[in-house]
Amino acid sequence: MIKLQNVEKSFETPAGRTWVLRRINLEIREGEFITIMGPSGAGKSTLLGILGLLDGAWTGDYFLFENAVHKLNNRQRVELNKRYIGFVFQQYHLLDSLTVAENLDLPLSYRDMRKGERQSLVADTLDRFQIVGKKDLYPPQLSGGQQQLVAVARAVIGNPKVILADEPTGSLHSSHGKMIMDLLKQLNEQGTTIIQVTHNEAWAAYGNRIVQMADGWLVEDAAPADRASLTR
Fold it and tell me: Using one digit for the tens of pLDDT, what is the confidence trace for 129-143?
């Protein structure tokens, strides 16, 4: 489903070239739950941005569902993003001027869908995530956990094949964090591929593979149980 071959990213500084990612080779099968871990500055979020087609300034080969992303122009990558990708950010990225229902409708408004079809999908998603009672509220009126729940709902409303989650529980209370992780696990069990970035070992264990990064390199790729045995 996803295949990266020798993906690299760098930029020039007065002191010379600085590398952000080096020779990343990674394959992810459809239906996996992958965790990307590593210290700050390791390149985790940069890699997630490339996987999510949000960053085009890199070299190497990237295949997504047989699409050669490295050969596509920006417009084609945007269309591929809309077709396959849902993104969950640590800081929610909800629009404070829109209600919960309007935030959910926003990604659908970019698609060729009739208004009635969009309204039906929003209603179904509100019910699925048990936030019908919040539909007319604005993000500042919600708790952090509720806002992140809406953010996850917005990410999945278009039925993406892949959800990318960048520290989705980083600013949440542990109980809210568990609620979000349980939801991601449930979506994965229903067939959605999940790729998350986290520093939390407990949340990392929700996945079936942990990819460890350091200084822009991929340094380890193992199942949680295998990784635990390596660190003992």
Answer: 889 999 999 999 999
